[in-house]
Amino acid sequence: xxxxxFSETERTYTGSELRPHFLLxxxxxxxxxxxxxxxxxxVETAKLVDWEDRLANDHIAAHSMIHFIxxxxxxxxxxxxxxxxxFMSVAxxxxxxxxxxxxxxxxxxxxxxxxxxxxxxxxxxxSVSIVTxxxxxxxxHVGINIDPSGATVPAIGLAELQVDPQAWAKEVxxxxxxxxxxxxxxxxxxxxxx
Length: 194
Hints:
5-stranded mixed beta sheet, globular, single chain, 3-stranded antiparallel beta sheet
């Protein structure tokens, strides 16, 4: 079973939250789960776990984001990346009809979401995401911009898209938990073939 929680406590994401048992010690979630909260994002180069960004001396910043922190036990790094891609697909699907009704085009490329106005060539980034391994689990961070001020790339946020961040985050957590439960059932409902 996957546990989920949206925390009403605002906090800044600095990268140090991407650690084993953050969900247990900070949000009281036991076992595999995803917690979410709202707050600024300030990840300095030294805290980045993505070597491509770190070698480029990059950093991550935004005035306000919805942060999803996941921890998954008993999985490999490859499975963690698959979980990340599934999570981003759920986030994409939950935004698709909302933004299309306003004339936006949205696409998922790997673990990122991009938007542009219909007829415009300029794409802007909505998300940041990473998966890494700890000694006991796979760890996930997904940040979805609310107000992308301070971002180092052309970015867009949920405020401009007229999407209520907290209601949307709770919906994504619920949808992802349903997907997780469906995967669990798919694993146990089949008759073995020998």
